[in-house]
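As the next step, I needed to go through one protein, both as residues and as discrete backbone shape codes, included below for the reader:
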Amino acid sequence: MNFVFFSPHFPGSSGEFAIRLHEEGATVLGIGDASYDSLPPRLQAALTEHYRVENMESEDETLRAVGFFTHKYGKIDRFESMNEYWLESDARMRTDFNIDGTKADFVDNLKQKSKMKAFFRQSGVDTVRFLKNPDHESAAAFVAENGFPVVVKPDLGSGASHTYKLSDQGELDYFLHTKPADTEFIMEEFIDGIILTYDGIIDHEGVVRFQASHRFEQSIMKVVSDDDHLRYFCLKNVDPDVERAGRSILEAFGIRERFFHIELFKSNKDGRLIALEVNMRPPGAWMTDAINYAYDVDVYSLWAKTVVHGGSGEPPEGHYYTGYASRKDRKHYRHGHEEILHAWGDAIVRYDEIEAVFSRASGNRAYQFRTDSLERVREIADYIQAEW
């Protein structure tokens, strides 16, 4: 298999996927804006060749790189990055070189939130009521039907950037007056609830080869807007309702041979699961490692085996609950690092700094820890994030 890996060096976890592909026998060909000499030694060893481009946004440069690889190594079997940001450019390369996978004519359904909702309805999973391109008149009608608060967010893209909760008419008027003219927004009803994810790996035939679920009891939108610290928990088991909803959504989208990350609200009011977003990539904020610690697996290797060999067997069971708790440099915390290690050292499996580009949502530095109960990982997160 000739596998072109776009941006194998960033984010950091991408290198692990590339290394496992090499270990499974794939010819891994990298394209990125970093020099070969600057890549970590393990990643250098995994790449058969690395083609440096000056600007990763340049389609012409990427076309030349893939053309060079095609001439030298033969037909390219896969073209992937593991980053949502490059979803559209990945699809264009697959289209231009007739490479297996999601093509350019379908990618908008995975990037535009308004188009996702049609597939959610097809899946039978409830979805958030929404309005596309709100103006004063249509927004007033939407609020009259659904009430305040409402949520506004860019229709295109992922993450919580430029996502706002509007609680009254004054905030709505201000948003409509100041919103960027070059960005299309959607307005959604506000759901009071937690986020549960359905994460995993699906093979070329549509069989789920691995599954996991994370629980977010914070609003990610509020974390970003308030520059707050983040916490989440990787669960030991996938709730059956979450699994049913997630698999229905995968079927509706026709997803094949990908890592997936599906976000669902669980309403505090009535317990309903409500589809929020689907992302065809590994989850961020160390969640791939959280999965590894909770399930005692190497999810990077599981993905590589699925891509190269097709995957086999039933999804493994979880053994632990894994927690993530970040800290922000601007905050004053009650317990220092050494205190945390003294109190919870047996449970802590990782402590590290966060790449700066992700720090607004994920924190400046973070701890990962695992125990045999959800209550205990909450207790550890409370201790780490306790403020003066």
Notes: The longest strand covers residues 193-202. The two ends are 55 Å apart (CA to CA). The chain has a mean pLDDT of 94. The longest helix spans residues 59-73.
